Amino acid sequence: MMEIGREILWNAGSWGRYITYLFMVITFVCLFLGLKKRYAMWKIGQSAPFDFKSLLWQRIGYFIKSGVFHKTILRKGEGFPGWMHFFIFWGFLILAIGTALVAIQDDFTRLVFDWEYLKGDFYLGFSFILDLAGLFAIIGVLMAMWRRYVTRPQRIDDNKTDDFICLIWILAVLVTGFLVEGGRIAATKPDYEVWSFVGWYTASLYSGLDQAGIEIVHRVLWYVHMIISFGLIVYIAYSRLLHIITSSLNMMFRGVEESPRGAIAAIPDFENAEEFGVNAIEGFTWRQIFDLDACTRCGRCQDRCPAFATEKPLSPKKFIQDLKGEWERTAAGVKNEEGIIDNVIGEETLWSCTACLSCQVNCPVSIPTFDKNIEMRRYLTMTLSQVSSEMKLLYKNLQTRFDPYGMGKSQRLEWTEGLDIKKATDEEVEYLYWVGCVASLDDRNRKIARAFSTVLQKAGVSFGVLGPEEKCCGDPLRRTGNEYQYFEIAEGNVELLKELGIKKIITACPHCYNTLKNDYAQLGANFEVYHHTEFMAKLAREGKIKINPTVEGITTYHDPCYLGRVNRIFDDPREVVNKVKKGSFVELPRSFDEGFCCGGGGGRIWMEEHHLRINHNRMDEMIAAKANTVVTACPYCLIMMEDAIKDKEKSETMTALDISEIVAKSI
Fold it and tell me: Which residue from 530, 346, 516, 543 is spatially nearest to 459, judged by alpha carbons?
């Protein structure tokens, strides 16, 4: 009885083994040279400290979970492209493992130990799994072709020659591999090779040839398959297939975040810098340039960008790709003397961003966009002093009155009329309630301050406010690029808080929350900061307040970007909302990490809107959900949602409320 197995390099000829070794050496030399050139291109950027060993196992774990097992690629709503990539990736990974097992047996275990493991039942299972992997890889490639050249969703940009070459080349490697297998089976005719079910089928294609003809065709195809397979490996370093390496590394660089999401890097040697921000590609760090090379042009960032969804000039994908093109030109010696702002990236594009981080958080390979945007905003703001009239007014108000409205400190306590609110500057309290500029000075949002203070008083919490001593936290300055003015205000705030001995802070504004908790940490501050949704949920769990269901009709909750996506506070607000709702609660389709921005972040709330409004886009979703009450947890969001309700003429059936307003009436 014939032993189950197969002869390695069958019909390859006496020189087949040595020719394979020769091509393998040439392949890896060419691959190394290509990667070495790419490495030199990455290094044209500024140096940046990066300790890859830090959290190394967490980084590797994140890559295995998100890269190998496709957690970030197979996200909700990404079924077709997700499975397409999964089939190609896993198909080739299994085929690569199978090829390695063949090589190890033929070049090591057989020669050293006279041991062959590719036989018997193991060989049958091995053959079946490899054929299945190859078939799924072909299906994945065909899905990619269908998507790129037939259905062409909006986020797929203009096809490049490289896209076509990659897909055809991959398909050619897979198809010739099965044809080679089919030729061998047709010539040797072992019945057990039915386990190689694709090869068994392709063997029928040789039915018109005699034995000699089969062997000739098989040998030609064997060499063709070998050459194009090694060629594909070389092509990795010179094509979009490089993302196999760059995207994988970027997941490990970025996937495990050592700093908070959206953290803005401080300007090194601030006092001695002659120029601020970036207007040349070499001004970015090597890590930021590596981000550009890791981009696969998948377009998920664009799909989730509120600016792009409302027809503004910003597409995060195009933003990254335009910078990548400038980097490649610069690395090739084509110097752009006029700078990248308004020549590569338009000013309007920069100011369209709401800094919501949707692009970064939803990128399957962890590429941030706003860190590059903020560097160019810094250049416009601090180096050129080139900003809009709205920004000039904002900066003037913050410089002279320390609030965006220019109303001054005398009005910061008007909201406390009739309430017995302590001042943290006069007496010791356990918690500082950081009211924020909007809740202190905007008539509508003052209701939030009153409502939340009422909740704290009923719960018996020891708290106080700064009143006239409270200044803007600096978020509008920092996220519009005015780092110098931000630093002045922030440093003063930190000094005051430390002087007062403040340890615990509560705020209803996610932008203040993020600044006090994360940005101020760069200044040596270490406060225990709570968002008011966290604190109210905590009070309810501890039994200090009893929340009764009072909200009739359909209730929905809008995730503020800087509370949800940036600081990952999703559950506490929903816990409170589900206690106050008497009717039903409906989750919006775009929620949690995929929540849609209100349009007010990144300084946008202080700018005029000249395009379709982001808050209108968001409100359309709420109207479709037939919501009666829109619950928010951010003063910016409340303003934007109320404006949208009025603009959509839905005031009779819909209302927007801050979560604290509802709780205050429900306890």
Answer: 543
Q: Span 544-552, mean pLDDT?
A: 96
CATH classification at residue 469: 3.40.50
Write down the pLDDT at residue 50. Answer: 78
CA distance 576 to 580: 7
Cα dihedral 190, 196, 201, 207 sign: negative
CA-CA distance, 315 to 294, in Å (whole number)? 17
Q: What is the mean pLDDT of residues 456-463?
A: 97
CA pair distance 263, 368, nearest whole angstrom? 10
- 515 and 260 Cβ atoms separated by less than 8 Å: no
Residue 383: DSSP 8-state: I
Give the whole-angstrom CA distance, residue 119 versus residue 124.
8
Helix axes 614-624, 635-647, angle to 10 degrees: 70
Residue 257 has pLDDT above 70, yes or no: no
- CA separation for the pair 130, 128 (Å, rounded): 6
pLDDT, tens digit, 9 for 90 and up, residues 486-539: 999 999 999 999 999 999 999 999 999 999 999 999 999 999 999 999 999 999
Instruction: Compute the distance between CA of residue 148 and CA of residue 528 in angstroms, rounded to an integer.
Output: 49
Report helix, strand or coil for 19. Answer: helix
Q: How many domains does the chain have?
A: 4
Domain boundary among 197, 221, 251: 251
For residue 407, give the 3-state DSSP assignment. coil
User: Which pLDDT score, from 0 to 100, does residue 2 have?
Assistant: 61
| 259 vs 257 pLDDT, higher one | 259
The share of the chain scoring above pLDDT 70, in percent, equals: 99
Percent pLDDT > 90 in the chain is 89
Q: What would the pLDDT profile of 639-664 be if each residue is shown by its tens digit?
A: 999 999 999 999 999 999 999 999 99
**What's the whole-number average pLDDT of the chain?**
95
First-to-last alpha carbon distance for the chain, in angstroms, is 84
Is position 324 within any domain? yes
Check: CB of residue 167 under 8 Å from CB of residue 173.
Answer: no
Task: Note whether 487 and 576 are same-domain residues.
Answer: no
pLDDT score for 1: 45
For 507-541, letters b (16+ CB in 10 Å) and e give: bbbbbbbbbbbbbbbeeebebebbbbbbbbbebbe
Same domain, 27 and 123: yes
Enumerate long-range contacts of 85-90, CB under 8 Å, 24 or more apart. Answer: 85/140, 86/140, 87/136, 87/137, 87/139, 87/140, 87/143, 88/137, 88/140, 88/141, 88/144, 88/170, 89/140, 90/133, 90/136, 90/137
Do 480 and 609 fall into the same domain?
no
Helix intervals (H) in 189-210: 197-203
pLDDT of 75 strictly over 70 = yes
* Domain coverage including residue 339: 273-383
User: Strands 584-586 and 629-632: what pairing?
Assistant: unpaired
Answer for the pair 166, 296: CB distance below 8 angstroms, yes or no: no
Closest to 82 (Cα-Cα) out of 93, 71, 95: 71
In sequence order, the 6+-apart residues with CB closer than 8 A to the CB of 488 are none
628: Cβ contacts below 8 Å, ≥ 6 apart: 552, 553, 554, 555, 583, 653, 654, 655
> Residue 159 has what pLDDT?
87
Q: 3-state class of 657 per DSSP?
A: strand
The alpha carbon of residue 99 and the mean position of all alpha carbons in its chain are separated, in whole angstroms, by 34
Burial status of residue 90 (CB atoms within 10 A of its CB: 0-12, 13-18, 19 or more)? middle
Cα separation, 293 vs 315, whole angstroms: 17
Q: Residue 314: give its domain's CATH number.
A: 1.10.1060
Beta carbons of 440 and 467 less than 8 angstroms apart: no
